Recover the amino acids of this structure.
């Protein structure tokens, strides 16, 4: 009997942890974000449903190419709850990514979302790295129409391996997936992470760390 109670307790705990690991299911038809509210909640405060209209569920401009004139040679155009208030509590968002020839979307993570990406134009080398201790690189070259998934929280990247511009569309399993670009976070933090810490972590001279921090 005691074993059965323990088993049921573990199952209940597992389901409880699973429920808290994802955005909660809405308890009404929608919860359009009220961007004028100063209240702070885990997500966004709901707008009065009587004042909601079609524009709250619409976003225009994803057909427009992003400006890739930057050091990475890429541009991400997000459609998250920040751009589209109707996404609030729905647990989904999307992005358009434009890549110049040989442009990259540098190694980064989404702390709150799994990402599924499809190539619309061009050829992309994509990949992600598994967690410690294996740190295994899983990578593939995608062509137009191919799809690839990046598991939640894992470091991943894309690179245009063609001589023409490339375009991808990606969906993410959060209204606000967040993004942590590894180089920016490590070398561009405010204030700086100690040069001694980074020099030891990356096994390089402290002067190299200083040069990298100056770039970010």
């Amino acid at each position: 009997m005691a074993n059965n109670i323990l088993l049921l307790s573990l199952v209940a705990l597992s389901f409880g942890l699973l429920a808290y690991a994802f955005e909660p299911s809405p308890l009404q038809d929608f919860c359009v974000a009220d961007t004028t509210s100063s209240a702070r909640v885990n997500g966004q405060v709901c707008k009065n449903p009587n004042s909601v209209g079609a524009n709250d569920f619409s976003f225009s401009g994803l057909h427009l190419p992003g400006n890739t004139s930057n050091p990475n040679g890429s541009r991400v155009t997000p459609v998250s709850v920040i751009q589209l208030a109707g996404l609030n509590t729905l647990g989904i968002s999307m992005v358009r990514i434009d890549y110049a020839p040989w442009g990259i979307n540098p190694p980064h993570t989404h702390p709150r979302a799994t990402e599924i990406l499809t190539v619309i134009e061009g050829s992309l080398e994509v990949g992600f790295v598994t967690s410690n201790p294996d740190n295994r690189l899983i990578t593939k070259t995608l062509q137009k129409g191919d799809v690839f998934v990046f598991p939640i929280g894992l470091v991943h990247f894309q690179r245009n391996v063609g001589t023409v511009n490339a375009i991808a569309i990606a969906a993410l399993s959060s209204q606000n997936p967040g993004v942590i670009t590894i180089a920016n976070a490590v070398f561009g933090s405010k204030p700086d992470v100690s040069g001694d810490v980074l020099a030891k972590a990356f096994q390089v001279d402290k002067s190299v760390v200083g040069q990298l921090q100056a770039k970010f």
Summary: The radius of gyration is 21 Å. The beta strands are 74-79, 93-99, 104-109, 115-121, 124-129, 137-142, 147-150, 155-160, 166-172, 180-181.
